[in-house]
Amino acid sequence: MSFGIKLEAVTVEFDGHIALSGINLELTAKSVAIIGANGSGKSTFARLLNGLVKPTSGKLSVLGKSPTVSEVGFVFSNPDLQIVMPTVFEDVAFSLTGKKLSKDEVRSRVEAALGAVGILELQESNCHTLSSGQKQLLAIASAMVREPKVLVADEPTTLLDLPNTKHISNILHELPVQQLVLVTHDLDLAATCHEVVWFDRGVIRKSGNPKSTIAEYRKSFD
Amino acid sequence: MISLYRPGSSIIHSIPAGWKLLGLALSLALIGFFGKDLVGSIVVAAGVLALFLLAGLRPIEILMQLWQMKFLLLIVLVPQLIFAGLEKGIYNTVAVFSGILLAALVSLTTKTSDIVELIKRITKSQSFALLIALSINSIALVIGFSKSITEAGLARGVKPNPVRQIVTLFVVSLRYADDYAEGLAARGVVV
Questions:
Q1: ipTM score of the complex?
Q2: How far does the CA of residue B108 sit from the closest CA of chain A (Å)?
Q3: Which of A19, A113, A147, A200 is deepest in the core (most CB within 10 A)?
Q4: CA A82 to CA A140: how far, in whole Å?
């Protein structure tokens, strides 16, 4: 079975603007951080991975196949964008709509997902009254309940304070996925990953060891 | 705030959503038929109170529901008092608000997902059921937008203006809709 994410000469263009240009990349590390300035193509890259954005040209595969929502979970920086149902349990269960599972199976999977992110006791709570950190955990549980093989999180800690950022970071690294991709401006969070890719104006400036890549990224602003 | 649902394990909570809605329709018909005099109004009001208690909800919950409807109460009561007289006006108002409270009781004791599931079964349409779920969810979002717009205006020293508020709310909601659609696609929602 193929492992990881592979891009061959991938270009993404929106209305004449090139967001990603001829990207060649192979990611096999368990956790990968994507860093770069605003507008560098990070979020476009993240959206490519679960099929929200299609390549204009080139070839992309995730685990040896074209990316699908069922195999690649996605978490946005603003969790409100992913809340559909009023209560926590219902919202996570919503992700299983159409899976033809029995009520007991749904309950068991939802409880497992909520337990994995530590918010099982909030299952009857109103989603809109949760704190930002709890909402982000809910978004992660909603993605994880589908049991994706890869999880992509686009700036998952942007709206969070330091304790919540650390908590979410720990939770993300403990999730049972084959590969975790974190798009982030938080270089401390990026440093927790096995590999870092630095995007700059739609191309990859450097990828590899977190320490050296982050150090070079920091230096580029001096 | 949406999600009126209050978790519980009462007998009212355990009744399936379809039966609850059927019971509500039947109750509304009975209220209209019997709630026309003093005895009928007392029986109706006591019945509503009993159902709230049976659902494990405190009487304060009824008062909170009525407080949220205070303006509606005035709109219903005042014309009734003018055109139907004091006695009849009060009986009619008790009947109307008992009906509303019973509908609230259904919301308070029924999960949105159960109502959505019922709609899906009746209409055989996943898309329609999703539309209902999103409509319910959007109430909280739009209330949140409205609050943010008011606060943003006040922070910049702008006095609240209903027309400006509505136009801004409309623009913000439309902009948010695009992002929300992407969020739904990421969760595997295909319509």
A1: 0.72
A2: 12
A3: A113
A4: 10
